[in-house]
Amino acid sequence: MTQRLHLVFGGELVSPDRTVFKDPAAIHVVGIFPDYASAYGAWKAEAQRTVDDAHMRYFIAHIHRLRDEATEAAPTEELGS
Question: What are the DSSP E strand ranges found in the chain?
Fold first, then answer.
Protein backbone atom coordinates (compact mmCIF):
# COMPACT_ATOMS: atom_id res chain seq x y z
CA MET A 1 0.00 0.00 0.00
CA THR A 2 1.34 3.43 -0.94
CA GLN A 3 1.73 5.88 1.90
CA ARG A 4 0.19 9.28 1.22
CA LEU A 5 1.60 11.81 3.68
CA HIS A 6 -0.10 15.14 4.37
CA LEU A 7 1.28 18.19 6.18
CA VAL A 8 -1.05 20.45 8.17
CA PHE A 9 0.26 23.95 8.86
CA GLY A 10 -0.97 27.50 9.27
CA GLY A 11 -0.42 30.92 10.67
CA GLU A 12 -1.30 34.57 10.51
CA LEU A 13 -1.77 36.00 7.02
CA VAL A 14 -0.94 39.53 5.88
CA SER A 15 -4.50 39.86 4.57
CA PRO A 16 -7.49 37.48 4.72
CA ASP A 17 -7.82 37.60 0.93
CA ARG A 18 -4.23 36.47 0.21
CA THR A 19 -2.16 33.44 1.20
CA VAL A 20 0.95 35.37 2.27
CA PHE A 21 2.11 34.69 5.83
CA LYS A 22 2.81 37.71 8.03
CA ASP A 23 5.78 35.97 9.69
CA PRO A 24 6.92 32.74 7.97
CA ALA A 25 9.17 31.96 10.95
CA ALA A 26 6.05 31.76 13.12
CA ILE A 27 4.18 29.22 10.96
CA HIS A 28 2.48 26.63 13.16
CA VAL A 29 3.26 23.11 11.95
CA VAL A 30 0.44 20.96 13.27
CA GLY A 31 1.99 17.72 11.99
CA ILE A 32 2.41 15.16 9.26
CA PHE A 33 -0.38 12.63 8.85
CA PRO A 34 -0.51 9.25 7.07
CA ASP A 35 -3.77 9.88 5.22
CA TYR A 36 -6.10 12.67 4.16
CA ALA A 37 -8.79 11.81 6.70
CA SER A 38 -6.52 12.28 9.71
CA ALA A 39 -4.98 15.42 8.17
CA TYR A 40 -8.45 16.81 7.58
CA GLY A 41 -9.39 16.16 11.20
CA ALA A 42 -6.30 18.02 12.43
CA TRP A 43 -6.90 20.86 9.97
CA LYS A 44 -10.53 21.19 11.03
CA ALA A 45 -9.62 21.29 14.73
CA GLU A 46 -7.10 24.10 14.18
CA ALA A 47 -9.39 26.01 11.82
CA GLN A 48 -12.24 25.87 14.35
CA ARG A 49 -9.92 26.87 17.20
CA THR A 50 -8.94 30.04 15.32
CA VAL A 51 -12.28 30.76 13.65
CA ASP A 52 -12.63 34.19 15.32
CA ASP A 53 -9.37 35.47 13.80
CA ALA A 54 -9.89 36.22 10.09
CA HIS A 55 -6.13 36.48 9.54
CA MET A 56 -5.39 32.94 10.78
CA ARG A 57 -5.52 30.24 8.15
CA TYR A 58 -4.59 26.55 8.08
CA PHE A 59 -3.74 24.41 5.05
CA ILE A 60 -3.26 20.78 4.07
CA ALA A 61 -0.26 20.08 1.82
CA HIS A 62 -0.26 16.80 -0.06
CA ILE A 63 3.35 15.75 0.48
CA HIS A 64 2.88 12.60 -1.58
CA ARG A 65 2.25 14.76 -4.65
CA LEU A 66 5.60 16.56 -4.33
CA ARG A 67 7.68 13.58 -5.40
CA ASP A 68 7.10 10.72 -7.79
CA GLU A 69 9.17 7.75 -6.62
CA ALA A 70 9.10 6.25 -10.14
CA THR A 71 10.94 9.29 -11.54
CA GLU A 72 14.74 9.28 -11.39
CA ALA A 73 16.14 11.61 -8.72
CA ALA A 74 17.83 14.87 -9.68
CA PRO A 75 21.61 15.06 -9.14
CA THR A 76 21.19 17.33 -6.10
CA GLU A 77 18.95 14.76 -4.43
CA GLU A 78 21.69 12.15 -4.73
CA LEU A 79 24.14 14.26 -2.66
CA GLY A 80 22.57 13.07 0.59
CA SER A 81 23.02 9.39 -0.24
Answer: 6-12, 28-33, 56-62
**CA torsion angle 21 26 30 36 (round to 10):** 20
0.85 exceeded by the pTM? no
Task: List residues bridging with 59 in a β-sheet.
Answer: 9
Per-residue pLDDT 10s for the chain (81 aa) are 678 899 999 999 999 999 999 999 999 999 999 999 999 999 999 999 999 999 999 999 998 887 666 666 555 554 444
Q: Residue 58: beta bridge partners?
A: 10
- Sequence letter at residue 45: A
